[in-house]
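Support reply, case 0932

Customer input (verbatim):
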Amino acid sequence: MNKQALEKYISVYKEGLLKNILPFWLRHSIDKKCGGFMFALDRDGTVVDTDKGVWQHGRFTWMLATLYNQVEQKQRWLDLAVHGADFIEKNCIDEDGRMYFVVDRQGKPIRKRRYVFSETFASIAFAALYKATGETKYGQLSRKLFEVFLRHVTTPGLIAPKFTENRQMKGMAHPMIGIVTAQELRKNLKDESFSGHIDRWIEEIRNDFMNHEYKAVMEIVGPHGEFIDHFDGRTLNPGHAIEGAWFILQEAKYRNNDKNLIDLGTTMLDWMWEFGWDKEYGGILYFRDVKGLPIQEYWHDMKFWWPQNEAVIATLMAYEMTGNEKYAKWHEMIHDWAFGHFPDREYGEWFGYLHRDGSISSALKGNIWKGPFHIPRMYLMAWKTLEEIKRKLSPTGFYSEP
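Our regenerated output:
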């Protein structure tokens, strides 16, 4: 990748984040009446449902505080992060310490899930706010919710119902999300003790979810990494594994370009790019069967927004850490496909759901799953990674292997 290409991509990601993606959500999602945010938006930003996803509240609060910490100390970003945190603290935590999944506009609980990802997203939000403000309560809330996550992923029966004893399974989501959550807390709370959790989760992925026979990162395995030859065990989620790959590459960078972690992260990316990249239409497919058998999920061949986002980050990070032009080419491929199909040129932001050929399935800009997280995080991470690559350019104007 040469200097001209770097400058072009930096401009696309930086300007896109600050002048397109973020302004769309700031115009349309803020609930000044009841607090928090409303994320269920039509194409033009019209609110189509006032129920509030708790995941998205944690994610957007984290995003706003992170922009304040990493980009510019804009008071509005900080004020809105506090606005989101206040809603979470007042309405989204149950008496048992667990969090809800959905609340109504006023904050009354609608749904609570068995899994504990509301807790991880709120934890990173409070940690980022602690860094931004120095307020002790945010650090305490962050640690408390992380402990809830730890307790539930390590206590038998809290995550999986009792009837699964006849076929015990575990998913990669817990160690994967655990890694990035601990990374955020380590950074923003300035506490190296979180590295121990990261070590354990990386080794769990390496030992239990990396299937060398199929050259695949498994999504669901037995309790000790056993292959489960049923729909659940055979179904791969390439975008999820590619996201996990860059979490591990991020850890490699933190540890002075640790070669073993670079090898693990790039292997995950290599394997799952092969499964995920649609060789006929382009873009990252949603689900694949590790044996090439039919998939039971009917949306398996759709193109969702977030796997493309994670592939953009992972390919750039792999390129930064290896200098391998293969990853620069993969970045160009995923960037061109994603930016050629997902952005809404008329109203801004991205569509979230496309058919396999890239045609629009739904014009929604937000719902219980899609909000201002994967897309703005991609823009920010890509921008900052490209700036790092730019700083390492050789005198000839080309980036070479570190």
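We compared this against your earlier run and they match. Two observations from our side: The domain at 1-30+171-402 is CATH 1.50.10.10 (Glycosyltransferase). The first helix runs from residue 3 to 28. Please reopen the case if you see a mismatch on your end.
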